Amino acid sequence: MSNPAAVESSRPSVIPPLPSAAMRTPSGLYSVPLEPGKPILFVTSELADFVKVGGLGDVSAALPRALLRYYDMRVLMPAYREVVESLWPIEIVAHLPGLAEIPACDLGRVYLPEGLIVYVLVCPELFERPGSPYLDEHGREWPDNHIRFARLSLAAAQMTSLEGDDVFSDNGWHPELLHLNDWQTGLTPAYLRWEGDETPCVYTIHNLAYQGVYGVDRLASLGIPEHAFTEEGLSFYNQLSFMKAGIVYSDHITTVSETYAREITTPEFGCGLEGLLSSCAEQGRLSGITNGIDDSWDPKTDAYLACAFATNDWAGKRVNTEHVRRMFRLAVSHGPLFAVVSRLVHQKGLDMTIAAAESIVRAGGQLVVIGCGEPAIEEALRNLEARFPGAIGVYIGFSEREARCIFAGSDFLLMPSRFEPCGLSQMYAQRFGSLPVAHRTGGLADTIEDGVTGFLFNELHQSDFQHAIDRAFRVYGCTELFYAMRRAAMAIYYQWRLSVTPYRRLYHQLMDLESAGNAGSIRRAAQ
Ligand SMILES: Nc1ncnc2c1ncn2[C@@H]1O[C@H](COP(=O)(O)OP(=O)(O)O[C@H]2O[C@H](CO)[C@@H](O)[C@H](O)[C@H]2O)[C@@H](O)[C@H]1O
User: Which CATH architecture has domain 314-494?
Assistant: First the structure.
């Protein structure tokens, strides 16, 4: 494609550190929360303010902020190179000891907009590297990922344990609940329980397919006691599983949509953990809470767009469509513009999109793709672009600016995902008047109304996907219906506010149980 703008810097401008009880409102004014809520630590391996590989980065930036008005919610993450090189000052607040081969490290504190306090693990030998949080520059997993994310998990446990007072005390702040995310944080509840600490833990699965499974020879290096390596503990087919540790030792498991919460109890989607997850569901320890999207996803105010637009301002939307066509050097066209904004991985069904591309072009449509990931998929997409110059444009890379322009400019978004825990791209697309064409699975089934706010197909067959694309073409040719669907899609808004209520209910339930001394017994009964 024609040289899209370089990936924009997400560097914030410098603001002075705030007193810990202060909040910075979106308007930029400082205010003090009326009631400082219970201390909760949200532990994550990505935060979109600094580094985002996929949806976890978005959720980690938005959900703790949405919860800030109810709790003294703080985030813990690794101090990757992007964090250290950002303009936000890092103040060292503690030194955390190591364990076995997990090195000691410093703990820093950063104040981000909207009053979000983020603790960062300053451990240059583990985290200050080129590449992504998980992969090196050549797309290979970092060989010491087990140590890196055991470091993250252990830090959360050390910050929580009251006996660790001499280790970590930020003006007496200690979490009363931990909200953990994905396998990278799975060892946290295990480290806590092995020390006899019963602080309640919520463990959210954003994607069960990534599990952090390692050979049994790594146990000693992570300080894992031998007695824990059992079928009931963290042995997964005689290997060590971080994901299983998170499920076994946490009080409650959530995942990011109700449908996916049901799906992962079946062999088709359970990735070998369906038995354990089924028993969690039977015990009431597994639930689905659909993700939201943050307020920045608004076509009326998004500064990245070629032209801001609102519902019914289809001329404004068309300016964005023409902008995308120019970005990708596509021909002038009156046909529909299809789009893909995705990590390029097997999960996302790019093989089906590639197989459908020729029919889209033959029917007078065009396709733009932005994404990066598996080299074979990247190459197949480049070949596709070369076969259909002027009709298909591909940008291999990651750029939120370009992604937003594509959501705004496209007519349809293709998401034939094999599975999709929630999916954010379809929600962004709907908000920007682009109708998703998606497989009826996971969160896609929960957030798209077939024939109203998008198109769903039931079986993962090429012919079913093609049929859904054909329906999209027909609706595009029927202007009134097409605009009615656009209006319906733009009207639904999965605000975080809606997801916050079930999280609050869950937190309260777990913290009350804990203060009544019941959490331990409930957990034990559940295991
Ligand atoms: N090249 C690119 N340039 C710019 N932006 C790009 C991009 N490629 C992807 N993105 C963006 O990255 C995010 C991807 O989020 P998704 O939720 O759609 O999928 P992901 O599989 O990463 O997340 C996992 O976690 C999330 C969060 O819970 C679940 O919704 C999801 O189902 C699960 O697979 C979106 O914000 C998308 O716009």
Answer: 3-Layer(aba) Sandwich (3.40)
